Amino acid sequence: MNKFQLDPGAVKAIAFDLDGTLLQKDKTISGRTKRAVEKCRERGVRLIIATGRALGSGEVYRKQLGLSGPQIYYNGALVVDMPSGRVVSSTFVPVEPIRYCVEIARSLGVYVQVYFPEGALPGHDGEVLMAETLGAESDFYNVSSGVQAVQGDLLEALNSPGVTEIIKTLFISLEHSPQGNEKLNKIRALVTQRFKDGVYVVASQAEYLEVLNSGASKGTGLSRALDYLGIRKENTLVFGDEENDLPLFAQAAWSAAPANARPAVLEAAGFKIAANTEDGVAQFLEALYR
Question: Which domains does the chain have, with CATH numbers?
Fold first, then answer.
């Protein structure tokens, strides 16, 4: 254990990102990873998914791993005790910034989708994901998440009487390069200039830029989940690979990033582990609990 400078007995909770961290490229969980997670469960460690995915999309993996307790969805905008469904915390964004996001998307010709809370839109049951055009971007998202957006006029939907806040919004641009995503960088600058610290603008992968409440992040989500469990950050280990995982790192004593992580995330992580395609999380946990 000197290799990790980490006493396995001190770890009471482990939070992990899914895409790019725990999942393989084909969005599956390997048998090796499942076994490593199960060993943690057998030791009484509380396990928390911390994902940008919607609850329904994240549920697929929670069930596969057999996890219970508070789980973090929508980049921390929603923390839910599963499988009971009890909402631990919800931190949604006001409608005004989302209207601006839709206007920007229209003017720049960039795909955007909006996540409406349960019961907000008449004629729809549950949470609703809506986009104005369906095509390559919505297909890309559907393949990745298993969630299909419904088509509709977003400004009209945002003006519905029952809509007072939004879970989050997501811009998708498939035109990125190793130098970055020019369209998403421009949108980030515009939204940040307009609302400054009033919103949280973050990349969750190369093709995605998200806009959430300024009080929502994986870090705040983890803090609320740990409070709910009665566990301190000093006893918490986290794994992540993207910009949206950096707040997660700040709320834990130990952090690890796979080799495929963004350079800034690798720099911030306490431990560098093997890539997600090489079961980096499983390798680390096997060594920790050997």
Answer: 8-90+217-288 (3.40.50.1000), 93-213 (3.30.1240.10)
